[in-house]
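User: Can you write out an input/output pair for a complex, sequences first and structure second?

Assistant: Here is one pair. Inputs:
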Amino acid sequence: MRASIEDYFLHPPAGSAAARATQFGIDLTLTLGNLRLTPEERIRKLDGFIESVNNLKNSIRVKGTADAIADQDH
Amino acid sequence: MPLPTRIIEAPLRLLGEYNVDCVIVGGVAAAIHGSSLLTSDLDVCYARDAANLRRLAEALQSVHARLRNAPEGLPFILDAETLRRGLNFTFATDIGDLDLLGEVRGIGHYEAVVTDSVTVELFGHSFAVIDIGKLIIAKRAAGRPKDLVALPELEAIQEAQVIPNDSEPESQN
């Protein structure tokens, strides 16, 4: 990646879209991390996040069910 | 039943294998351009010529696509004719959710969306991805909070794309 692009995201020039994004609350180091990846790697990363979230949701459901059964036993 | 995995990759592979003419739009297009925002389904704008609708219907049938959030028992025949009669569809499939857009708000139909699109290689197939400027227009036109929140980062990515090249080191000659 070109140094000027890295610099744009790490040190957004005043009045730039990057400066506005930072002010909005966007962590542009995450964006920069994505830009260092290939498009295919970006999709794989996205799929990894989705899978983690789904697994987490699933484990919460299983835990919730197990707790409900345990409560019935008492 | 286990949850499907690779729920973006798998539908992309499917569309590639069936040679469906489409443009990746929405959150996945934003991710391909570098956005860090999460999305959990694939949106594509598809060409509506008869041959493409046939390929698309075959692809969807192969993964048992059904209308998402439709009432149980709603009669629905998944074929090219049904796709021709409709425009936008939201499907759940065995491999993940897939949203088909005949038209992208703020941009238009496939022909307008594919113009200026960028081509990327994904999982052994070439895909058109909506131009970032058009993606910004589309998200602004959609106007939902989840679209609007994506704008500042996309605008920063767009601006970064036009930063002049780094100056070349001066020749020692």
